[in-house]
Amino acid sequence: SDRKYDPYRPTSFDQITKDAKEFCQELMPKPEEETRKLALLQKLSDITVEVFGEAEVLPFGSSGNGLALANADMDVCVFLNPKNGSEEVSPVEFVERIGDRLEKDPDFENILQLKRARVPIVKLNHVNGIACDIGYQNDLAIWNTRLLRAYCRIDERVRDMVVIIKIWAKRRKINNPYTGSLSSYAYVLLVIHVLQRRGVLPNLQTIVAGNGKVPFWDCQGFNRYFFEDIANLSRYWQPTPESQRQSIGELLYEFFRYYASEFRYANHVEDTEQAQSAPAADSKPVVKNRYLFCIEDPFELNHNVGRPVDRYS
Ligand code: 3AT
Ligand code: MG
């Protein structure tokens, strides 16, 4: 279907590739920002240990996978280890106690305790300019961060594509799951999907060393297995020669072409509308805007990452 006549296809992608690359360079975080993030990580780690005893604070999301833009916020996750003497607390209790402790520290501002979110978190700003989300015991987030980092290590075009799409979505104000649009994480998954279709990336979750069966590595009940030995990936998978020739400009064009005119949103929308217009006598639950955009999480297969999307966005 990609070979169909496309009247909008530019004859040359050189200029857009050049511009995109310059833009990516500009949007890279500076080393000094990295230093501020590390200092904040250390401070949060000290505070967590003070409140709960033994604890580990790990960065995830763009701070952990190399996909951060300059001035990106930092996502961190706290892991308590009751076996080593820390307390055992529920996610809501965690948010309350760490949130209350941070309130007492003048270095933190705009502290929000999001206790009812799907994944409860504390949001805050540090006086050094870094915004931070603090989550709790979210092993899957650590693993999906590692999966995205592995994809980035395969081909440098992944980072360039992600950076451009993220900045585009932020500027269009369609990058906020709290107000009905997609998270950055969702956009990264969309980019990876397109790159897989173009043969630029493999599906790391189906590649097994020695070509054996895909193992089941349990994480919160889901299979977190993926092929992570990128240095030896070429033994099991090679990009197609055509995919290697594709420039950032061409791949960006393909991203927008695919989601504008090939991806089948329409079916999902129709399904939703049918459900909503069902007669009242029909006791089926009314599905409201749930399936406008379906994006399967790589590990948590029953979680639609596109679920926050509303009809408007
Ligand atoms: P920014 O640089 O902050 O824009 P990011 O790559 O850090 O982008 P997010 O802030 O959207 O991405 O998400 C941070 C991490 O949180 C990424 C992923 O490990 C986890 N995450 C976010 N949204 C979801 C989701 N809907 N399902 C599962 N994990 C998610
Ligand atoms: Mg983030």
From TrEMBL:
Full-sequence range covered: 493 to 805 of 805
Signal sequence coordinates: none
Residue ranges occupied by any PAP-associated domain in the UniProt entry: 247-303
Q: Which GO terms describe its biological process?
A: negative regulation of macromolecule metabolic process; RNA 3'-end processing
Pull one GO CC term from this UniProt entry. Answer: cytoplasm
Give the record's keywords alphabetically. Cytoplasm, Magnesium, Metal-binding, Transferase
One example GO MF annotation: metal ion binding
Q: What is its main location?
A: cytoplasm
**Family that this chain belongs to:** Belongs to the DNA polymerase type-B-like family.
Q: What name appears for this protein in its UniProt entry?
A: polynucleotide adenylyltransferase
The Poly(A) RNA polymerase mitochondrial-like central palm domain, residue ranges: 16-152
Task: Tell me where in or outside the cell this protein is found.
Answer: Cytoplasm
Which top-level group of life is the source organism from?
Answer: Eukaryota
Q: Does the keyword Glycoprotein apply?
A: no
